[in-house]
Amino acid sequence: CKPINISLIAVYAPTNPPKGQKANIDESDTFYINLQDTVDKVPKGDMLTIVGGFNARVGKQDSQEPGNVIGPHTVDSTNENGKRLIDFCNINNLIVANTFFQHKPIHQASWMHPGKKVWHMLDYTLVNRKFRSIVEDVRVHRTAAGTIGMDHHLLWAKVKIHLRSRRKKQHAQPIRLDSKKLRDEKVVDAFQKDIKKMQEEMANDTMTVDEKYVNFVKCIKRLGQEHFQQEQNNHRKQKEWLTDEILDIVNKKAKAFLDWQNNRGTRTEQKHRDKYRMLRKLVKTKVDARQTEYWDE
Question: Which Gene3D superfamilies does the record match to this protein (predicted)?
Answer without folding.
Answer: Endonuclease/exonuclease/phosphatase
